Amino acid sequence: MATNPKAAKPGEKAAKPVDKDAALRKEIITTIKGPITEKVTKLIPALAAFPNPYNSVLATPDLLYACMQLVKTRRDMFAEFLVDEAGNLVPEDDKPLRCGRSVDQIISMVVRSGAKAYATKRYAPADAEAAKAKAAPVKSEPKTILEKISALVSGKWGDMEVPKPSPTHADTFYDAIKDYLDFDWQVPLIPCFAELPVKLIREMGRGVTTLRTAEGIAALADIGRQSMDSAKRILSDDMMREMLDTQPLAAKGVAFLGKDRYDYLHGTVYDKMGEKFWEMCVDCERLEAMEVQNAKDLEQMASHLHILSGESINQFVRFLQFSQIPIILEVGSERLGEEKFAEIFGIPGNNKLIKMFCEKIKVAKLDAEDPDEDLRKKLPDIFNAYLRAPADFERGL
What domain of life (predicted)? Predict the structure, then answer.
């Protein structure tokens, strides 16, 4: 039971206020280090070989992720910890437990702790060398009065002005990324994040959470500082922030376009696309195909431009009437399904099928009074013919 703190006596320093949040965190960490780690070790006996299973797992992202997935799939083994203040089981991950935090919040804590532990291990040699380089030189006997005063001050007064240790590379990395680590799927990506320049992580901010694969992070690294700086010069501050938060890989496409071509495409389709505009900008071949098309054709494709390949855009404009473009997009997505539609008309796509579908529409005999409505009725049969026998359709049978 909690008790009221005693009043401070005259002359005594008042007791520091209790940091309830820090106390909660400490309690959670103690529980994870103790009984939860013990249960996980029973489920994975090999962990017992580590001198300190908790520290070893925390600093090894793949192992940490595997343990987190184990806890998630074997909730029954950890039921005693997944209860509220009344002792009732809490099945939802977003509802508070007895400790005051939800499972989602605890996952965030673990992901961040894992990032810090990994970075400390990853950069330990470099940080140790940096600390060694900053070590005080070997002292020699003071020769002048000025040297003597300096030696006396550093020896007898230096403890009053001890400088704080400089942040290590691990510290700066963790400080830059910690606010954006919230999800268990980020754990396997921690080693990839740790290779990115800290300046880039700070620039991206929340955009870090859009990179869900190692390949995506590699693509970001491939963009390079020059393209990122070019995008910064082309975009307004608000648009730059939106791009980084939504799809930072778009920086390469923006830099590829340059100011004038970017302004043309932005003015043509951004209002219709919203944040999907940035996904559209990821692929330079798509942008190259778009920049030679007229604004009206692009507006007709706006709903799907973030999916379409450059070849799809070129063939639509080559074979289809202006009003037929949104019909093939709408009916194609509906009949083929989003995944199959993207497989054919997206990147890299199937250039042979793209051309075949467009040619069939071009030669279709449509009602002269309302050709668009007639196309809308006949187009499902074309897509259904493909779905029934894809190989025969491609051979023209």
Answer: Bacteria
